[in-house]
Specification:
single chain; alpha+beta; Protein Transport Mog1p, Chain A; globular
C-alpha cells in the first residue's frame, strides 16, 4: 500500500519545488521505491523544460485558445486544476512533432507513461473490487457472450474472454469502468485460493507502447502492455506464479477464446 496518495498534481508540485519539506521527503521516499512513479516525474520535468525552451524565443508557436480549452477540459482532475500542468500538456502536444521522445530521459516516453497511468488507476480500482465477495462482478460469467459483445462495443475492440483454467484461474464475470472518461473493461477471475485476478482492457486517446511493463504495489503485481489505442493490464497477487506467463501472452491471449 502507498503511504501517501500521489497523483500528477502532486508530482507537478514536487517537480516545481512547491511542496512543504515533509511532503517532499515522503514523495522522495516513494519515488525511490517506485520506478514507474520516478519515470512520471522525469517526464513532467522534461516536458516542462522543453516547453520553456520552446516558448522562450520570438518564433514560438502560440497555443490556440480552443486547443488549450479542450486539453484542460479533457484532463480535468479530481482536485483543483493547476495552470502549469495544463500548459505542460499543451506544450507536449506542440512539441510532439519536434522529436520530443528523443529528448526525454530513458524510459520516460509518453507511450510508456500512458500505460503507467492506466496501471495506477486500475490498481486503485482493484483494491476496492477485490475485497467484494457477493458483488465481485457486475455481469456474471454465465452471460459471457453478452459481456464480450457489450464491452467490445464500448472499447471499439472485438475480443474473446480467455479461458485461464490451465493457469489456475476461473472466470467470474466482469464490469465496465472508466479512466480519464474513457471505457475500461474489467474481466475478473479467481484463483484456487479465492483471491481475485483482473484482466483489464482500457481505451486511451493516444498510442500505447507494446513493451511489457511490470510494477509491484504492495502485495499486488501489475503488468501492462499497449497495442494501438488500447492498454492491457493484468493485476493480481504478487505470489501468483502464473501472472508473468499470462501477461506475456497479452494481447494475443484475448483472440484465442
Amino acid at each position: 500500500m502507498r503511504c501517501l496518495p500521489i497523483d500528477d498534481i502532486m508530482l507537478v508540485a514536487f517537480a516545481d519545488g512547491e511542496l512543504d519539506p515533509t511532503t517532499t521527503w515522503l514523495v522522495e521516499q516513494q519515488l525511490a521505491r517506485d520506478p514507474a512513479l520516478a519515470e512520471r516525474v522525469a517526464l513532467l520535468r522534461a516536458t516542462g523544460t522543453l516547453l520553456r525552451e520552446a516558448l522562450s524565443g520570438r518564433d514560438h508557436l502560440a497555443v490556440p485558445p480552443a486547443l488549450a480549452s479542450r486539453v484542460a477540459r479533457l484532463a480535468q482532475p479530481r482536485r483543483p486544476w493547476r495552470p502549469w500542468l495544463a500548459a505542460a500538456m499543451v506544450g507536449g502536444l506542440l512539441l510532439a512533432g519536434a522529436n520530443l521522445a528523443d529528448r526525454l530521459p530513458f524510459n520516460a516516453d509518453p507511450a510508456r507513461a500512458s500505460i503507467a497511468h492506466v496501471m495506477d488507476e486500475i490498481a486503485d480500482y482493484h483494491g476496492v473490487f477485490a475485497s467484494e465477495r457477493e458483488h465481485l462482478v457486475e455481469i456474471p460469467a454465465e452471460r459471457k457472450d453478452h459481456l464480450q459483445a457489450w464491452l467490445g462495443d464500448r472499447l471499439q475492440l472485438a475480443f474473446k474472454i480467455p479461458d485461464l483454467r490451465d493457469h489456475g484461474l476461473d472466470f467470474q464475470g466482469g464490469r465496465l469502468l472508466a479512466v480519464d472518461r474513457l471505457p475500461v473493461a474489467q474481466l475478473m477471475y479467481t484463483g484456487k485460493d479465492g483471491i481475485p485476478v483482473a484482466l483489464c482492457i482500457a481505451l486511451i486517446a493516444g498510442d500505447a507502447s507494446p513493451v511489457l511493463q511490470r510494477r509491484d504495489d504492495g502485495d499486488l503485481a501489475l503488468f501492462g502492455r499497449g497495442q494501438g489505442h488500447h492498454v492491457f493490464v493484468l493485476v493480481g497477487p504478487a505470489s501468483n506464479k502464473y501472472l508473468p506467463d499470462i501477461a506475456n501472452m497479452m494481447p494475443e491471449l484475448l483472440n484465442r477464446g
